[in-house]
Amino acid sequence: MAARPVSRMLQRVLRSSVRSCSSGAPVTQHRPGEPSQTAVEELSRRRQFLREHAAPFSAFLTDSFGRQHSYLRISLTEKCNLRCQYCMPEEGVPLTPKADLLTTEEILTLARLFVKEGVDKIRLTGGEPLIRPDVVDIVAQLHRLEGLRTIGITTNGINLARLLPQLQKAGLSAINISLDTLVPAKFEFIVRRKGFHKVMEGIHKAIELGYSPVKVNCVVMRGLNEDELLDFVALTEGLPLDVRFIEYMPFDGNKWNFKKMVSYKEMLDTLRQQWPELEKLPEEESSTAKAFKVPGFRGQVSFITSMSEHFCGTCNRLRITADGNLKVCLFGNSEVSLRDHLRAGASEEELLQIIGAAVGRKKRQHAGMFSIAQMKNRPMILIGG
């Protein structure tokens, strides 16, 4: 991805450094391959300058608790070629008319606006984003945005092996693949469709093309797949995977029940019984995952603890639904339509005011699993995860 533009002040400092290097001053001798003391000091000065003169993060994307939202998730479609139990109600969902969904140009217009304000990571979701005919073109257009460092996609993997070479060429840099079981028959029960072997083919294609780690999202549900935790971890012995165990979360129509939820600590205890040496890895800032690794394994495992240990305090995520609504919290039911304002001819400044007002209303944390279960919200498939 292209780097952010260098500020005029920093350009002057760099030009000054170049002039000083050609001033005829004596050169300090040092061994080949070893940075000189002067070079080390100069690098240190430049880093200090960048820290002190970094452009302030957009006020429109900073909430009242100081959280800076640099990560945007955009749902490309409400449609999906699977019917996962925890995502879509058994009877299906009423889909938004095509005319009310964001067009490709509207998606790119909003993406440009958010990136200009400081978003440096965009993840494309759904529904199933890979059933959108112009998904490769969308990735290519996003790849041209200066300042955007990461373009990710979350997919069920059914179409991944076929499309990934084109997506990689277009600029896709990160992949999350949903897979809740390693048993083909159970796969069909969970997703109400066939396709297990296509998903596995997609995972191996991602590895073959050099994606590392390839993230595998597994929603753990008691009585359904909690008996496969060890099998998933075993996959990381020889493959560069990050298997992410996700606590079962309540959304409209997914028949959530507290008794079905397997907590992070319970899952971790199960893993430690098999691998007592399981080690905790450092957490990245704003990460939603608690990461662990079995020493000697190529990959790692992570836990998304949305229910038992929320990570609201460091949340840096915003979501745009396929019909153009901005959601500032996955579990909140408050939304604002950016689509309607776009189509009404709102200026960039007006859109930023609307976005800033929504971000400013974001709560400190979600209400807790039991309150969320009673709250009216969209089914997961209409949010985009």
Describe this structure in words.
The protein is an alpha/beta fold and 385 residues long. The protein has a domain at 72-314: Aldolase class I (TIM Barrel, Alpha-Beta Barrel). It is 34% helix and 15% strand. It contains 13 helices and twelve strands. It has helices at residues 8-21, 37-53, 104-116, 135-143, 160-170, 184-191, 196-208, 229-235, 264-274, 338-343, 348-360, 369-374, 380-383; strands at residues 71-75, 121-125, 150-155, 174-178, 214-220, 241-247, 279-280, 289-293, 300-304, 317-320, 325-327, 335-337. Strands 7-8-9-6-5-4-3-2-1-10-11-12 form a twelve-stranded mixed β-sheet. A hairpin with an 8-residue loop joins strand 7 and strand 8. Helix 4 (135-143) packs parallel to helix 5 and helix 5 packs parallel to helix 7 (196-208). It is globular. Pathway: Cofactor biosynthesis; molybdopterin biosynthesis. Keywords: 4Fe-4S, GTP-binding, Iron, Iron-sulfur, Lyase, Metal-binding, Molybdenum cofactor biosynthesis, Nucleotide-binding, S-adenosyl-L-methionine. Its cofactor is [4Fe-4S] cluster.
Walk me through the topology.
Layout (H helix, E strand, L loop, with lengths): L7 H14 L15 H17 L17 E5 L28 H13 L4 E5 L9 H9 L6 E6 L4 H11 L3 E5 L5 H8 L4 H13 L5 E7 L8 H7 L5 E7 L16 H11 L4 E2 L8 E5 L6 E5 L12 E4 L4 E3 L7 E3 H6 L4 H13 L8 H6 L5 H4 L2
Parallel strand pairs: 1-2, 1-10, 2-3, 3-4, 4-5, 5-6, 6-9
Antiparallel strand pairs: 7-8, 8-9, 10-11, 11-12
Helix pairs in contact: 4-5, 5-7
